[in-house]
Amino acid sequence: MTLLDLGIDIGGTKIAMGLSKKQGVGLTRKLVFSSQGKLPPTQWYARLKENMWLVLGHDLKTFQDKGRIGVAIPGQILKDGRIGHCPNTPVLKKLNLAQWLKKDFKVPVHTDNDANAAALAEHQFGAGRGIQRMVYLTISTGIGGGIIEGGKLVTGNDHVAGEVGHLIIHFDGERCACGRRGCLEAYGRGPALEERIRRRLSQKKLSVGEKQLLNLAGGKASHWRNTLISRALKKHNPVILQELDRHSFYLAVGIGSLANILNPERIVLGGGLTQLGKPLFAAIHKHLKSVAIPKHVDLRPAALGADVGIYGAIALCRK
Ligand SMILES: [Zn+2]
Prior knowledge:
This protein is an alpha/beta fold. The protein is built from eleven helices and ten strands. Helix 9 (238-262) packs across helix 10 (278-288).
Protein backbone atom coordinates (compact mmCIF):
# COMPACT_ATOMS: atom_id res chain seq x y z
CA MET A 1 0.00 0.00 0.00
CA THR A 2 1.29 3.47 -0.87
CA LEU A 3 1.51 5.67 2.18
CA LEU A 4 0.38 9.24 2.33
CA ASP A 5 0.80 10.41 5.89
CA LEU A 6 0.50 14.03 6.88
CA GLY A 7 2.26 14.74 10.16
CA ILE A 8 1.45 17.94 12.06
CA ASP A 9 3.55 19.02 15.02
CA ILE A 10 1.92 21.80 17.01
CA GLY A 11 4.41 23.64 19.18
CA GLY A 12 4.14 26.68 21.43
CA THR A 13 5.77 29.01 18.89
CA LYS A 14 5.49 27.18 15.56
CA ILE A 15 3.56 24.53 13.73
CA ALA A 16 5.56 22.18 11.48
CA MET A 17 3.97 19.79 9.03
CA GLY A 18 5.30 17.31 6.53
CA LEU A 19 4.01 14.78 4.05
CA SER A 20 5.54 11.32 3.95
CA LYS A 21 5.03 8.92 1.06
CA LYS A 22 7.36 6.13 2.14
CA GLN A 23 8.34 3.93 5.06
CA GLY A 24 11.09 5.34 7.27
CA VAL A 25 12.64 8.78 7.22
CA GLY A 26 11.97 11.22 4.37
CA LEU A 27 9.47 14.01 3.77
CA THR A 28 8.03 14.93 0.38
CA ARG A 29 6.90 18.38 1.48
CA LYS A 30 7.46 20.38 4.61
CA LEU A 31 6.04 23.62 5.92
CA VAL A 32 6.67 25.62 9.10
CA PHE A 33 4.61 28.59 10.25
CA SER A 34 3.92 30.45 13.50
CA SER A 35 1.48 28.88 15.99
CA GLN A 36 -0.59 31.95 16.84
CA GLY A 37 -2.07 29.90 19.69
CA LYS A 38 -4.10 32.83 21.03
CA LEU A 39 -6.33 33.21 17.96
CA PRO A 40 -10.02 32.26 18.30
CA PRO A 41 -10.44 28.51 17.53
CA THR A 42 -12.27 28.84 14.17
CA GLN A 43 -9.75 31.36 12.84
CA TRP A 44 -6.80 29.28 14.07
CA TYR A 45 -8.27 26.15 12.50
CA ALA A 46 -8.96 27.86 9.14
CA ARG A 47 -5.29 28.86 8.99
CA LEU A 48 -4.19 25.32 9.85
CA LYS A 49 -6.40 23.91 7.09
CA GLU A 50 -5.05 26.38 4.51
CA ASN A 51 -1.50 25.24 5.24
CA MET A 52 -2.54 21.58 5.11
CA TRP A 53 -3.94 22.26 1.64
CA LEU A 54 -0.59 23.69 0.57
CA VAL A 55 1.32 20.64 1.82
CA LEU A 56 -1.18 18.32 0.11
CA GLY A 57 -0.73 20.23 -3.15
CA HIS A 58 -4.51 20.81 -3.22
CA ASP A 59 -5.01 17.15 -4.16
CA LEU A 60 -7.73 16.14 -1.71
CA LYS A 61 -8.98 13.28 -3.89
CA THR A 62 -5.71 11.29 -3.71
CA PHE A 63 -5.36 12.10 -0.01
CA GLN A 64 -8.87 10.88 0.76
CA ASP A 65 -8.11 7.56 -0.98
CA LYS A 66 -5.03 6.66 0.99
CA GLY A 67 -4.17 9.47 3.38
CA ARG A 68 -3.86 9.63 7.17
CA ILE A 69 -3.31 12.54 9.53
CA GLY A 70 -1.22 12.45 12.69
CA VAL A 71 -1.08 15.38 15.10
CA ALA A 72 1.41 15.83 17.96
CA ILE A 73 -0.09 18.12 20.61
CA PRO A 74 1.78 20.08 23.31
CA GLY A 75 -0.65 18.87 25.98
CA GLN A 76 -2.72 15.92 27.10
CA ILE A 77 -5.45 14.21 25.10
CA LEU A 78 -8.49 13.45 27.24
CA LYS A 79 -10.36 10.15 27.07
CA ASP A 80 -13.14 11.71 24.97
CA GLY A 81 -10.63 12.91 22.34
CA ARG A 82 -10.65 16.55 23.39
CA ILE A 83 -7.42 18.30 24.34
CA GLY A 84 -6.83 19.00 28.03
CA HIS A 85 -4.45 21.48 29.66
CA CYS A 86 -2.34 23.16 26.95
CA PRO A 87 -0.49 26.10 28.56
CA ASN A 88 1.50 27.32 25.52
CA THR A 89 -1.28 27.02 22.94
CA PRO A 90 -4.48 28.04 24.74
CA VAL A 91 -6.57 27.75 21.55
CA LEU A 92 -6.29 23.96 21.78
CA LYS A 93 -7.87 23.64 25.23
CA LYS A 94 -11.06 21.58 25.10
CA LEU A 95 -10.85 21.49 21.28
CA ASN A 96 -11.66 18.19 19.61
CA LEU A 97 -9.17 18.73 16.80
CA ALA A 98 -9.27 15.08 15.66
CA GLN A 99 -13.02 15.26 15.15
CA TRP A 100 -12.80 18.53 13.17
CA LEU A 101 -10.05 17.14 10.91
CA LYS A 102 -11.90 13.84 10.36
CA LYS A 103 -15.03 15.71 9.34
CA ASP A 104 -13.19 17.95 6.86
CA PHE A 105 -10.64 15.57 5.36
CA LYS A 106 -12.52 12.26 5.73
CA VAL A 107 -9.37 10.28 6.58
CA PRO A 108 -8.24 8.56 9.81
CA VAL A 109 -6.81 11.07 12.31
CA HIS A 110 -4.47 10.15 15.17
CA THR A 111 -3.56 12.57 17.95
CA ASP A 112 -1.32 12.24 20.97
CA ASN A 113 0.86 14.20 23.30
CA ASP A 114 4.07 15.41 21.58
CA ALA A 115 6.47 13.64 23.95
CA ASN A 116 4.71 10.31 23.41
CA ALA A 117 4.75 10.95 19.67
CA ALA A 118 8.49 11.72 19.74
CA ALA A 119 9.10 8.46 21.64
CA LEU A 120 7.23 6.57 18.93
CA ALA A 121 9.19 8.41 16.23
CA GLU A 122 12.55 7.49 17.73
CA HIS A 123 11.34 3.91 18.05
CA GLN A 124 10.02 3.65 14.49
CA PHE A 125 12.57 5.73 12.59
CA GLY A 126 15.40 6.75 14.92
CA ALA A 127 17.68 5.53 17.71
CA GLY A 128 15.27 2.83 18.91
CA ARG A 129 14.63 1.01 15.65
CA GLY A 130 14.23 -2.76 15.93
CA ILE A 131 14.05 -3.01 19.70
CA GLN A 132 11.08 -3.95 21.90
CA ARG A 133 11.63 -2.01 25.12
CA MET A 134 12.70 1.60 25.11
CA VAL A 135 12.42 4.70 27.24
CA TYR A 136 12.70 8.12 25.60
CA LEU A 137 13.42 11.34 27.45
CA THR A 138 13.66 14.79 25.96
CA ILE A 139 15.62 17.25 28.05
CA SER A 140 14.95 20.85 27.09
CA THR A 141 12.77 23.57 28.68
CA GLY A 142 10.95 20.73 30.43
CA ILE A 143 11.49 16.99 30.54
CA GLY A 144 9.06 14.83 28.61
CA GLY A 145 9.17 11.33 27.27
CA GLY A 146 7.49 8.08 26.56
CA ILE A 147 7.79 4.37 27.26
CA ILE A 148 7.76 1.66 24.59
CA GLU A 149 7.02 -1.90 25.69
CA GLY A 150 6.61 -4.79 23.27
CA GLY A 151 7.10 -2.28 20.44
CA LYS A 152 4.08 -0.25 21.56
CA LEU A 153 3.60 2.96 23.47
CA VAL A 154 2.59 2.48 27.11
CA THR A 155 -0.41 4.75 27.61
CA GLY A 156 -1.73 3.74 31.04
CA ASN A 157 -5.29 3.75 32.28
CA ASP A 158 -5.90 7.50 31.93
CA HIS A 159 -3.48 8.02 29.06
CA VAL A 160 -0.95 9.76 31.29
CA ALA A 161 1.74 7.06 31.47
CA GLY A 162 5.28 8.00 30.50
CA GLU A 163 5.39 11.28 32.41
CA VAL A 164 9.08 10.67 33.05
CA GLY A 165 9.76 14.33 33.86
CA HIS A 166 7.54 14.11 36.92
CA LEU A 167 9.30 11.19 38.50
CA ILE A 168 9.98 12.52 41.99
CA ILE A 169 13.70 12.36 42.72
CA HIS A 170 13.80 14.61 45.78
CA PHE A 171 11.20 14.20 48.50
CA ASP A 172 9.95 17.66 49.51
CA GLY A 173 12.35 19.19 46.98
CA GLU A 174 12.08 22.15 44.63
CA ARG A 175 8.70 23.13 43.19
CA CYS A 176 8.05 21.86 39.65
CA ALA A 177 5.98 23.61 36.95
CA CYS A 178 3.37 20.85 37.46
CA GLY A 179 2.80 22.03 41.04
CA ARG A 180 4.40 19.00 42.72
CA ARG A 181 7.72 19.05 44.51
CA GLY A 182 11.02 17.39 43.68
CA CYS A 183 10.27 16.23 40.11
CA LEU A 184 13.12 15.21 37.81
CA GLU A 185 12.06 18.11 35.55
CA ALA A 186 12.57 20.69 38.29
CA TYR A 187 16.19 19.55 38.70
CA GLY A 188 17.18 18.19 35.29
CA ARG A 189 15.60 20.58 32.78
CA GLY A 190 17.91 22.85 30.78
CA PRO A 191 16.87 26.13 32.46
CA ALA A 192 17.58 24.65 35.93
CA LEU A 193 21.25 24.23 34.97
CA GLU A 194 21.32 27.72 33.43
CA GLU A 195 19.83 29.20 36.60
CA ARG A 196 22.33 27.44 38.92
CA ILE A 197 25.23 28.81 36.86
CA ARG A 198 23.74 32.33 36.84
CA ARG A 199 23.40 32.21 40.63
CA ARG A 200 27.07 31.28 40.96
CA LEU A 201 28.09 34.12 38.65
CA SER A 202 26.00 36.61 40.65
CA GLN A 203 28.01 36.12 43.85
CA LYS A 204 30.22 38.95 45.10
CA LYS A 205 33.45 36.95 45.23
CA LEU A 206 34.17 34.88 42.15
CA SER A 207 36.72 32.13 41.58
CA VAL A 208 38.99 32.19 38.50
CA GLY A 209 36.69 29.70 36.75
CA GLU A 210 33.58 31.72 37.58
CA LYS A 211 35.24 34.88 36.26
CA GLN A 212 35.99 33.07 33.01
CA LEU A 213 32.32 32.11 32.65
CA LEU A 214 31.20 35.63 33.43
CA ASN A 215 33.47 36.89 30.63
CA LEU A 216 31.91 34.41 28.23
CA ALA A 217 28.51 35.84 29.23
CA GLY A 218 29.71 39.33 28.33
CA GLY A 219 30.19 40.36 31.97
CA LYS A 220 26.56 39.89 33.04
CA ALA A 221 25.45 36.85 35.04
CA SER A 222 21.91 37.18 33.68
CA HIS A 223 23.29 36.85 30.13
CA TRP A 224 24.65 33.36 30.81
CA ARG A 225 23.08 30.80 28.41
CA ASN A 226 23.44 27.03 28.16
CA THR A 227 24.56 27.58 24.55
CA LEU A 228 27.86 28.86 26.03
CA ILE A 229 28.60 25.54 27.76
CA SER A 230 30.45 24.02 24.77
CA ARG A 231 32.79 27.03 24.62
CA ALA A 232 33.45 26.76 28.37
CA LEU A 233 34.14 23.03 28.01
CA LYS A 234 36.76 23.73 25.32
CA LYS A 235 38.53 25.90 27.90
CA HIS A 236 38.29 23.02 30.46
CA ASN A 237 36.51 25.42 32.78
CA PRO A 238 36.33 23.75 36.23
CA VAL A 239 33.01 25.40 37.17
CA ILE A 240 31.26 24.06 34.09
CA LEU A 241 32.69 20.60 34.68
CA GLN A 242 31.39 20.72 38.26
CA GLU A 243 27.93 22.02 37.31
CA LEU A 244 27.58 19.59 34.43
CA ASP A 245 28.56 16.76 36.75
CA ARG A 246 25.93 17.82 39.29
CA HIS A 247 23.27 18.19 36.60
CA SER A 248 24.18 14.78 35.19
CA PHE A 249 23.80 13.31 38.65
CA TYR A 250 20.21 14.60 38.87
CA LEU A 251 19.49 13.19 35.43
CA ALA A 252 21.13 9.87 36.34
CA VAL A 253 18.94 9.53 39.45
CA GLY A 254 15.86 9.79 37.22
CA ILE A 255 17.21 7.71 34.35
CA GLY A 256 18.60 5.07 36.74
CA SER A 257 15.25 4.81 38.55
CA LEU A 258 13.50 4.30 35.20
CA ALA A 259 16.07 1.63 34.31
CA ASN A 260 15.41 -0.11 37.65
CA ILE A 261 11.65 -0.18 37.19
CA LEU A 262 11.42 -0.89 33.47
CA ASN A 263 14.76 -2.52 32.56
CA PRO A 264 14.53 -1.29 28.94
CA GLU A 265 16.86 -2.44 26.17
CA ARG A 266 17.75 1.16 25.45
CA ILE A 267 17.20 4.66 26.83
CA VAL A 268 17.17 7.40 24.19
CA LEU A 269 17.87 10.99 25.17
CA GLY A 270 16.80 13.92 23.01
CA GLY A 271 16.22 17.66 23.45
CA GLY A 272 18.41 20.75 23.50
CA LEU A 273 20.74 19.84 26.34
CA THR A 274 21.77 16.54 24.71
CA GLN A 275 23.47 18.58 21.94
CA LEU A 276 26.36 18.71 24.41
CA GLY A 277 27.03 15.11 23.40
CA LYS A 278 29.84 13.09 24.92
CA PRO A 279 30.63 15.19 28.04
CA LEU A 280 26.98 14.94 29.16
CA PHE A 281 26.52 11.27 28.29
CA ALA A 282 29.81 10.28 29.96
CA ALA A 283 28.87 12.11 33.16
CA ILE A 284 25.41 10.49 33.26
CA HIS A 285 27.00 7.05 32.71
CA LYS A 286 29.40 7.65 35.60
CA HIS A 287 26.55 8.42 38.02
CA LEU A 288 24.35 5.62 36.72
CA LYS A 289 26.82 3.17 38.27
CA SER A 290 25.61 4.15 41.74
CA VAL A 291 21.90 4.33 40.82
CA ALA A 292 21.03 1.65 38.26
CA ILE A 293 20.56 -2.02 39.14
CA PRO A 294 21.04 -3.25 35.53
CA LYS A 295 24.82 -3.57 34.97
CA HIS A 296 24.70 -1.94 31.59
CA VAL A 297 22.32 0.85 30.59
CA ASP A 298 22.35 1.42 26.83
CA LEU A 299 22.05 5.20 26.68
CA ARG A 300 21.90 6.76 23.21
CA PRO A 301 21.36 10.19 21.70
CA ALA A 302 18.15 10.69 19.74
CA ALA A 303 18.62 10.39 15.98
CA LEU A 304 15.86 12.47 14.42
CA GLY A 305 16.92 16.03 15.25
CA ALA A 306 14.70 19.02 14.53
CA ASP A 307 12.06 17.09 12.56
CA VAL A 308 11.31 14.69 15.44
CA GLY A 309 7.94 16.41 15.97
CA ILE A 310 6.76 15.84 12.39
CA TYR A 311 8.03 12.25 12.47
CA GLY A 312 6.26 11.81 15.80
CA ALA A 313 2.97 12.84 14.21
CA ILE A 314 3.62 10.48 11.27
CA ALA A 315 4.53 7.67 13.69
CA LEU A 316 1.09 8.10 15.31
CA CYS A 317 -0.50 7.15 11.96
CA ARG A 318 1.60 4.00 11.76
CA LYS A 319 1.58 2.73 15.35
ZN1 LIG B 1 6.49 17.90 38.01
